Amino acid sequence: MSFIGKIKNKIISKSNGYNFYKSKYSEYKQLIVDKNNALRDRNRDIRFFKGEIAKKDKLIDNFNDKLNTINKTLNSNNKTQEELLNSIHTSLSSSRKENSILNNVISNTMEQYFNESKDNLNSLKTTIGHNVEDFNKQINANNDFYISQFNNVLYELNKSQIIEEEQWKNIYQTINENKLEFNNLIENIRDISANDLKNQLNKIIAIERGVQELRNNINIDREINYGIIFKDTISNSKWLKNQSFSLNNGAANYSFLYLIYRILDEMDIKNILELGLGQTTKITSQYANYNKNSYLTVVDDDKNWIDSFSNQLNLSENISIKTADREKCPKFEENNSFKYKDLDLKDKFDLIIVDGPFGYNPENGVKSTYPRTNILDLIDNNIKDDFIIIIDDYDRKGEQKTAKLLMEKLSKKGLKYHVFRTWALKNQIAIFSEKYSFIRWF
User: Fold this and answer.
1) C-alpha distances out from residue 76 to 1, 80, 372, 412, Å
2) What pLDDT does residue 211 have?
3) 273 and 133 in one domain?
4) Contact 341, 325 (CB under 8 A)
């Protein structure tokens, strides 16, 4: 290929490059129209175009330098070569003109875009202005409403204050009237002599003593009645052969013995737990000896008492007497409340008799507020589905409180129960499941 041919090819290549950038401009122009809200992207695109144009100008300058070199080389060429050079110059001038047109188009596009953005901004300001005006109107309307409500509240407060002042006037008037009556009462009391007051007080004390004596007599009558019924009930007993009981001081009473005997004699009791060794153990031990498929566990904290009293019992293999230390109940320690320490019982019992340890502090005689609380722990794992629990000394407030805690815990565990209470020299409470509901008629 001749040198001139190569020059033509380069010129054609440059022309194709120009057409390429021209088509690119059309694409970016369309992109500017589609993305009105992307000002930064458009600025970047514009900078890109300007950079390309600068590069093209630089290429053209370089090309001019080469052409000058070529002109020096071709001075001796013919007219055709000069015409060709003129044509080349014309093409280059046209290329520069096209580039100038491209710059003008870009500048016009930018000006149009900024004008459109300015119009949009003015429109947005107008919209915001309308919204602010509407918002102010709404605030003013709300202020009028709240001011009206506030005035209503003030009116009601003033009204209530007037009513309250009237009420206080009535109260003061009533106080003044009662004050006169009270002064008259004081004068009457002063007229009463000290001896008269003492006599009246003695009469009141005498009445209280009489009421208490009447209560004691009623309890004695009930105890005698229970004693007669108990003697008649056990007279022909098949299993209670030793019927000698010492019911004095803090020992069991007839209502307690009668209740235990009726339960053992009429129900198929398999496993008995007795907290506190004593007169009732004479009944429970004979029952266990007679019914070989039943078991009796007795717990007490006094080793000497166990050794002494056990001599009155006929102990068999199905009877176990355990010694457990007595301790203050940690939960109720400040109230002189005692329980057996570390009761490690694995069995489940259908009858539990609660008569130990002491329901008072043996050192000072102060009654316990929550005595014998072992039963609260036993109902978690040591009672059968069908159960009977008897608490002795229910005439004392401490045992009443413990029984109340027991019934509350049974209710929380979802265990249904019935209650029966005896009344005599000492009282007992029996708490039992539905199966033994007829105990209420003993």
Assistant:
1) 20, 11, 137, 123
2) 81
3) no
4) yes
Domains held by the chain: number: 2
pLDDT digits (tens, 9 = 90+) for 310-355: 999 999 999 999 999 998 887 765 667 889 999 989 999 999 999 9
Residues 245 and 393 in one domain: yes
The model's pLDDT over 20-35, given as tens digits with 9 standing for 90+, comes to 555 655 665 566 556 5
> What CATH code is carried by the domain that includes residue 362?
3.40.50.150
Q: Is residue 232 part of a domain?
A: no
Model pTM score: 0.57
Query: Encoding tokens for residue 83?
Result: 């015409």
| 134 plus 244 within the same structural domain | no
Decide which of 90, 122, 138 is a domain's last residue: 138
What mean pLDDT comes out for the span 6-14?
54
> Does residue 261 share a domain with residue 126?
no
pLDDT digits (tens, 9 = 90+) for 195-223: 676 777 787 788 878 888 888 889 999 99
Q: Is residue 116 part of a domain?
A: yes
Q: Please report the DSSP string for 259-322 in residue order.
A: HHHHHHHHS---EEEEES-SHHHHHHHHHHHH-TT-EEEEEES-HHHHHHHGGGS---TTEEEE
What does the alpha-carbon distance between residue 350 and residue 372 come to, in Å, rounded to a whole number? Answer: 19
In a domain, 172, yes or no: no
Residue ending a domain, among 113, 138, 163, is: 138
Residues linked to residue 273 through DSSP beta bridges, in sequence order:
297, 352
Q: Could you list the residue range(s) of the whole structural domain that residue 107 is in?
A: 3-138
Please indicate, yes or no, if residue 171 is contained in any of the structural domains: no
Per the CB < 8 A criterion, the answer to whether 219 and 424 are in contact is yes
Q: Does one domain contain both 397 and 258?
A: yes
Helix, strand, coil percentages (3-state) for the chain, rounded to 5, are 65, 10, 20
Cβ 295 vs Cβ 271: under 8 Å = yes
- pLDDT over 50 (residue 132): no
pLDDT in tens, 268-286: 999 999 999 999 999 999 9
Do 126 and 250 lie in a common domain?
A: no
| Whether 266 and 386 share a structural domain | yes
Distance of CA 8 to the CA centre of its chain: 91
pLDDT in tens, 302-321: 999 999 999 999 999 999 99
CA distance 416 to 437: 11
Decide if pLDDT at 411 tops 80.
Answer: yes
Please report, rounded to a whole number, the percentage of residues in the chain having pLDDT higher than 70. Answer: 55
Angle CA 113–115–118, to nearest 5? 110
